[in-house]
Amino acid sequence: MLSHIRKVKEKKGQHVCPECNTQNSMSIIGTRVSTLNSITTSQILSSDLDERDEKYRKVLAFTNGVQDAAHQSGFIEARNYRFTFRTSLQKVINEQDGPISIDELTKKFIDYWKSNSDPSDTDHREAYFYRFFPSDYMGKAEIEDYRNITTNQISKRFEDEFDTRISWEVVSEFGYNGMIGRTLEKTGSSVVGFEF
Fold this sequence. Notes:
By secondary structure, the chain is mainly alpha-helical. The protein has one domain (18-173). The protein is built from six helices and no strands. The protein has helices spanning 2-12, 33-45, 66-94, 102-116, 124-132, 156-173.
C-alpha cells in the first residue's frame, strides 16, 4: 500500500508538457494577476513585432472594478517603463567591446537612442522622448507641453533636462535601483565593478 502511495505522489510531482510530452521542461509559476499583466505587456510593447511608432503603442485592459483598473493601470505603467529601460540599457551594453565607465555608458546610451528609437526612421529624437518619458511624470506633464508651436520642435531646454533624468536613471540602475525587482545585476545581464 505504501509503494502505491509513493507512485501516485511521484506522478503528481512530474511536470509534463502537454504538447511534446517532455518531462520537467515546464514550470508552474504562482503570481498575482497584476504582475503577470505587467510582464506580458512589457514583453509585447518592447518587441519589434508592432511596427507602429512608440507613441502610438497602447494597451487596453479590463478589470472587474474601478479600484482594480486604477491599480493595474498605474502598476503596469510603472513596471513597463522599468522593463523597457533595462532592456534598452542592456542593448547598448551588449554593443560594447569591453568594460565601460558609467559616464561613458550614459553618453552612449543617450546618443544611441537619439538616433535609433524610431523604427520608421522618421524622427528618432522625438521617439526617444516618448520611449523613455518617466512613468512617474505621467499625468503631471506631457511631451507636447514642451513643443514650440512655430517650429513644431521640442525645446532644447526640455531635451537637456530630459537627458539629465536619463543619466540619473542609468546611474541608479547600477546603484539606487540595483537590487529592486528584476534588475540587470540580479538577472546576471550586467554588473558594475570598480577599477583598481
